[in-house]
Design a protein that fits this description.
This protein has an eleven-stranded mixed β-sheet with strand order 3-2-1-4-5-6-7-8-11-9-10, with helices on both faces. The model is unreliable at 123-131 (pLDDT under 50). The relative contact order is 0.11. Helices cover 24% and strands 27% of the residues. It contains five helices and eleven strands, in the order E-H-E-E-H-E-H-E-E-H-E-E-E-E-E-H. The chain is elongated, with a radius of gyration of 20 Å. The termini are far apart. The longest helix has 13 residues, at 75-87. The chain has 220 residues and is α/β, with parallel strands linked by helices.
Length: 220
């Protein structure tokens, strides 16, 4: 898979390193000469250019990319890069970093964003996830599909403890995608039985979150 990352700061370089380790091709773009740190990620391709300019994206071969990640520290730049990637080059997957949570509402399909990642929101969500049992925690928003990645740790005495996944009438527009049990990651099958303490990850429509939480939690 070919991935272009706009923004070669600490965030961009870190993402690039992870993707390269997983066998992907990565191009890092930044307009600041001091950000071009080839020795930091030597396996990546590098381009000194402004990712908000069509000529730069042409030079980057954006039309050949499977994924574009807008990872600069400027929300305006990330929105422009996302919009150009989607509308001018038809990139299948666009992921954008949200620096200011107040701008999160802008990072949607209208701006070409498939997945918006707000670092402050994600950090607070991970704190909630670590201390919350029986409460639904929103981890990530998928803009194009109008869906969220949400987590709930099944509390003791939850009505669904002991139920087979295939027997549960999950809310509409909701999918159980992963069960984390201790140090095991389980791809849920109809015969898998839910247990107290299971960390359940769902992709769900926002309007179904309240219904999902009510189904999984202990009645108060």
């Amino acid at each position: 898979m070919r991935v272009t990352i706009a923004g070669a700061g600490a965030v961009g370089r870190s993402i690039a390193g992870e993707l390269l380790e997983n066998g992907h091709e990565v191009l890092l773009i930044d307009k600041a000469p001091k950000a071009i740190s080839v020795e930091g990620v030597p396996q990546a391709e590098w381009l000194l250019a402004d990712a908000c300019e069509i000529a730069s994206l042409d030079e980057a071969g954006m039309q050949r990319c499977n994924v574009v990640i807008a990872a600069t520290g400027d929300d305006k730049v990330n929105l422009v890069v996302s919009l150009l990637a989607k509308t001018e080059y038809g990139v299948p997957r666009v992921v954008a970093r949200v620096n200011d949570p107040r701008n999160e509402w802008l990072f949607n399909e209208a701006w070409g964003v498939d997945v918006a990642v707000s670092t402050p929101r994600l950090m607070s969500a991970l704190v909630e996830e670590a201390v919350s049992v029986g409460d639904l925690v929103r981890l990530m928003r998928f803009s194009q599909g109008e869906a969220n990645l949400v987590e709930l740790t099944l509390p003791p005495e939850a009505p669904l403890s002991g139920s087979r996944c295939g027997d549960v009438a999950w809310p509409r527009d909701t999918a159980l995608v992963t069960i984390i049990r201790g140090n095991k990651v389980i791809a849920p099958q109809p015969d898998d039985v839910l247990q107290s303490g299971d960390e359940l990850l769902f992709v769900a429509a926002p309007e179904r979150e309240e219904e999902l939480e009510a189904l999984l939690s202990v009645p108060r």
